[in-house]
């Protein structure tokens, strides 16, 4: 009975603490038409202290979305266009000699912001990608022999164009794994696009009001971790990830030849965290199996390696995730 009361109390606390989610959504929807999945994914990344990788053709409001989020949270936003000639110093900063002071001074790069948009991340060479990776993983940047902590909150949203592969440096598996979510962005619906045209033709683009402070997000993150995750849901998460590694054990022998490698322990952690954040966004104090299923594709999409056989048969990681979700027992 005691646990039940706790859940009730927790539920009320989460409902109180998550009231800002509606306000943020309201501000975002003022500027962005549709793209509900993108906005949800950004919020999940933000609330779970994870980074987001976006895949979609140009012109789908990817830059606008993160810029609007930064506006609503009164946070610092920086956009870096990744190009083949970009250097790590262009991203993190460098030491500059001051003749006046006769010493080297640190000039910080654009990465010292709350929200970073790494546009077309696969266009920059490995050196630049790994410089971004240190900031993402360690939450710090080293310039010369000094390490600087990143500001909080710190969210990297990287985009890649799925069409053009010429002159690109695909992210290695270990780097892709550092992104909590990989979102696939599709075209807007017919009526949504009509609204987009009308808004643009008016010439006056709406702007999000500042409704939150960065410290509000940092506080909300600790509340998200309090969301109740039952042992049965925990087992469900582990079953899903283990089924991607050992499909035969879950009556999925047909997938054995399709998967080169399954989700890492990071997949399990992020699946649990994202499910908690999703429950928080839905203003609930406990995680349901539906929450896990809702975030599963975005968390696992980039963590399941396809074999040559799967690629030859044009089987996507989404199809594999669907097979896993259909066969793993729901608690």
The domain tally reads 2
Bin the strand percentage.
5-15%
Structural class: alpha/beta
Characterize the overall form. Answer: globular
CATH class annotation of the largest domain: Alpha Beta
Radius of gyration: 21 Å
Uncertain spans: none
User: What is the residue-mean pLDDT, rounded to a whole number?
Assistant: 86
Q: How are the strands ordered across the major sheet?
A: 2-5-8-1-9
SSE pattern: HHHEHEHEEEHEEEHEHHHEHHEHH
> How is the CATH topology of the largest domain named?
Rossmann fold
Tell me what the structure shows:
With 331 residues, the chain is α/β, with parallel strands linked by helices. It folds into two domains: 22-217, P-loop containing nucleotide triphosphate hydrolases (Rossmann fold, 3-Layer(aba) Sandwich), CATH 3.40.50.300; 227-327, Magnesium chelatase subunit I, C-Terminal domain (Helicase, Ruva Protein, domain 3). Helix content is 48%, strand content 15%. It is built from 14 helices and eleven strands. It has a five-stranded parallel sheet. A two-stranded antiparallel ribbon has the order 3-4. α3 (36-47) crosses α11, α11 crosses α12 and α12 runs antiparallel to α14 (317-327). It is globular.
Sequence-ordered SSE layout with sheet pairings:
Blueprint: H1 2-17, H2 19-31, H3 36-47, E1 52-55, H4 62-72, E2 77-81, H5 88-92, E3 93-98, E4 103-108, E5 115-119, H6 126-138, E6 140-143, E7 146-149, E8 155-160, H7 173-176, E9 181-184, H8 190-202, H9 214-224, H10 231-245, E10 259-261, H11 265-281, H12 289-300, E11 305-306, H13 308-312, H14 317-327
Parallel strand pairs: 1-8, 1-9, 2-5, 5-8
Antiparallel strand pairs: 3-4, 6-7, 10-11
Helix pairs in contact: 2-4, 3-11, 10-11, 11-12, 12-14
